[in-house]
């Protein structure tokens, strides 16, 4: 059994036949694309994709900040006048 992370599903055949209709019917929600009743891809709106990319960028930046804070070096002190 495999979880599906979407409220809507469509087959690959439906996607091939009329991708524009699927996008319109989705109303901005993600669609799980199924092949033989197993999810093989997700169709997401541009807004959703952009939010996902921003979240991944934020996560990567957070990991960089944590690594630098825990690297054993003394923090560099900066004042507003220095900027």
Automatic annotation (TrEMBL):
Say which species the protein is native to.
Answer: Psychrobacter pacificensis
Q: Can you tell me which family this protein belongs to?
A: Belongs to the phD/YefM antitoxin family.
* PANTHER family named in the record: ANTITOXIN YAFN, ANTITOXIN YAFN-RELATED
Summarizing the function annotation, the protein's role is: Antitoxin component of a type II toxin-antitoxin (TA) system.
Q: List the protein's name.
A: Antitoxin
Q: Which Pfam families does the entry link to? A: PhdYeFM_antitox
Q: What is the lineage of its organism?
A: Bacteria, Pseudomonadati, Pseudomonadota, Gammaproteobacteria, Moraxellales
